[in-house]
Amino acid sequence: MADQKKTLTTSAGAPVDDNQNSLSAGPRGPLLMEDHVLIEKMAVFNRERIPERVVHAKGAGAHGTLTVTGDITEYTKANIFSVLGKQTECFVRFSTVGGESGSADSARDPRGFAVKFYTEEGNWDLVGNNTPIFFLRDPLKFDNFIHSQKRCPQRHVKSPTMMWDYWSLSPESLHQVTILFSDRGTPRSYRHMNGYGSHTFSLINAEGTRVWVKFHLKTEQGIACLSDAEATELAGRDPDFATRDLFEAIDSGDFPRWRVHVQIMPEKDAAGYYVNPFDLTKVWRHSDYPLIEVGILELNRNPQNYFAEVEQAAFSPANVVPGIGFSPDKVLQGRILSYADAQRYRLGVNHTALPINRPQCPVYTYHRDGAMRFDGNAGREPNYEPNSFGGPQEDPSYRQPPLPLEGDADRYEQRTGSDDYVQAGDLYRLMTADQQQQLVDNIVSSMATVPAEIQRRQIDHFTKADADYGRRVAEGLGLGG
Does a structural domain hold residue 396? Predict the structure, then answer.
């Protein structure tokens, strides 16, 4: 560890006063565009790799349909949910997160679960994971987190020390770490795992009433996972197993299905809930907000060309439709900017006109020119607004209801008032004895080469979540007693 203190700066050399907390309107409020530190970090991070994705580089995808089975029109005016039995075409891309495009499908890693719904009102992208939470609650920390999971800058290999050093200094990651090192950290295939929108979103009905919502996609194939030994063996024998499994299942007519559910929270409940409902490291208890079934997602058609349909598929949480909106979830707010920006860099400014990304409804914008413009560039139509020549105009009827905000603009300490141990401990105690043992064994194996100082720091987090959890990891690492 270096002796000389170095002050963190922006790329222009300006000192950074806070690298842990984004600038927001109040502790729970949305982020501010003036947070140039956040914007620079995300923009630079999005441009670190070319041409594969910075994260979620290894993936597989398929086409399918969403069929509405439950009535939620009291909560949303979104056309996709307007009628029971209504079907909407979609495209789903599954992925691992940290590995490169040639990495093993069986890696211990979260799995991306991104769905593009081609609705009559535009594309809606539900860009989630196979876990209901994540490692952090502030997007300012995202690039540093991913760096800790990628390759060491000197040796160019994955480093357990980097990973556990970061996690041990970021206790908000404990809930997700507990999931990652459980049996669910290595799904058997993309078909045998759940999907989650993870973030809190909003639904808005025809009367303009807003509720908060979380999306859950429950696999009908059943949850199936790999042990650490099975995942390691499969990585050597068939590193593309999940990619192959998805294609072959669909090709044989064994179409995978997920039941789509929502949790609904009245807007007024948010202020008094026992955790911040916009905190991505937390779940809402199902006993408080039960799952409501809304549809069946079925994948029933394979891509004809991987590059054209899977590699060029571009997802962004910014893509919502009338009746579905955002929330003050800070990581969601960061992703709204970051994902679209990453796709503009990776695929070009006109990537939404590619066949796999193009909406199946009319599109009228004043965007013009740019690389790879292949759709006529709107011909002789005006390229400015307002205009006197019949160009597209705004429609105030789609305006969302105002969102009340309070609080001074500041960089609020994101750990203040947040217990990062309760839900992780609850999860540990929900596990069977066998699942607990797998969790402990997986952690001990991963931490075996990590310096003792970092081991002890992380064990302290495990212990605060559950004394037995911490004790068993400590004993496994020879630090008990």
Answer: no
